[in-house]
Specification:
Elements (H helix, E strand, L loop, with lengths): L13 H6 L18 H15 L6 H8 L3 H4 L6 H13 L12 H18 L2 H8 L5 H12 L8 H24 L6 H19 L7 H7 L8 H15 L12
């Protein structure tokens, strides 16, 4: 995915920030006297990204959302790239299953995948951040740990479990990208307008005779992408179970 410009302050030394490690590992200092907090800055940025898209997020815009001076935010966020990392990890908090996982490995994986999909559709900007900022924060690590824990009943070697989680994540991310493109995300109006403008062209091409298999599908109506997620995930898990000689599922509570 295309990368935007770097930190907004001309004098910001982003290489120095990188040398000190990821933003979550840096000391935050004592800011108790200020009405602003890092959490408030991140929350305002997430709200802005949800409403207007990732391109709208800048230190200046977030400061305006909070009614603060732009420079005051740099006491809490060193650069826009740090802000994106913090936003992504905070949104990842919503992915975590707080009430415990089912004992059945498939049910647990499906629950995590469905929760992750819902969060990505609620915050579609996360897909872009994941593509350009491959940082894993504390909540991201908790998500990985929970995904691996879903496979505990199978007693797999760690690399085998990691490959299964990666396959599910690959399917999930690809499906969500397609959903966002076709209007399943926040900007449904733009996607619907694009679909309406393209339909006459597709119908005209279908009548040309060049697409004898595609034409009946267009006439019957293409499956709605938002309705195919669960079926595709079941097919994927069926294949994983067969290739590893795994049971399709285990009774709840069985370990």
């Amino acid at each position: 995915m295309p990368r935007t410009s770097g930190p907004e302050r001309p004098d910001q030394d982003s290489s120095g920030a990188r040398e000190r490690g990821p933003v979550w590992a840096r000391p935050t200092g004592d800011r108790r006297r200020s009405a602003l907090t890092q959490e408030a800055v991140v929350a305002a940025a997430i709200t802005l990204a949800d409403r207007e898209g990732l391109a709208a997020v800048s230190i200046r815009r977030v400061a305006a959302e909070l009614g603060a001076r732009t420079m005051s935010l740099y006491s809490y966020i060193e650069s826009k790239e740090d802000l994106l990392d913090l936003m992504f990890d905070e949104a990842n908090r919503e992915v975590l299953i707080e009430d415990g996982l089912p004992g059945d490995w498939r049910a647990a994986i499906i629950l995590i995948a469905q929760r992750t999909r819902a969060v990505l559709l609620r915050h579609p900007w996360m897909v872009e951040v994941a593509g350009r900022r491959p940082q894993v924060g504390p909540n991201g690590l908790r998500h990985v740990e929970q995904s691996l824990a879903a496979l505990d009943p199978l007693r797999l070697d760690p690399p085998a479990g990691a490959l299964i989680c990666a396959a599910v994540d690959d399917y999930l991310l690809g499906h969500v990208i397609r959903e966002v493109m076709t209007g399943g995300g926040a900007d449904r109006g733009a996607a619907e307008a694009a679909r309406s403008s393209t339909l006459p062209y597709l119908q005209r091409m279908a009548r040309s005779g060049e697409f004898p298999r595609l034409a009946p599908l267009l006439d019957a109506g293409m499956p709605q992408v938002g309705e195919t997620f669960d079926q595709g995930l079941e097919w994927l898990l069926d294949g994983i179970a067969r290739s590893h000689g795994l049971p399709a599922g285990l009774p709840d509570g069985d370990d």
